[in-house]
Amino acid sequence: MLAVGGALFLAGFRQFHRDGTDAAAVRAFFTSNTFLALLFVAWGVGGATGGVGPVGQLLAGALTAGTFAWLWTRRPALDGVTSAPAAEADWVAARLGRAAEYVRDNAHRPSPSNSD
User: What predicted TM-score, i.e. pTM, was given to this entire model?
Assistant: First the structure.
């Protein structure tokens, strides 16, 4: 979830970094709030369940990507300023494909132990 969310978080700020417009700032604001909310939910679920395993990680990554896609297509507004359109949609889709391949290829590896 952190890898997918972090990549999408950075993608959400690309347009703001390039343009610096009010619309891009609104999108960056909602992107950061979404990322933090998902991060805290994942942290709580992981702490309550002791970890979710590879399937849970795939589901969390898909949920994260879906939440960001939903947010970016809704174009939320802040004080009357509508957010910028998702200009990075193709860029994000390409990276998500690579991330899914990485998770699939590394799902068989055991998780590091915290019992040192």
Answer: 0.57
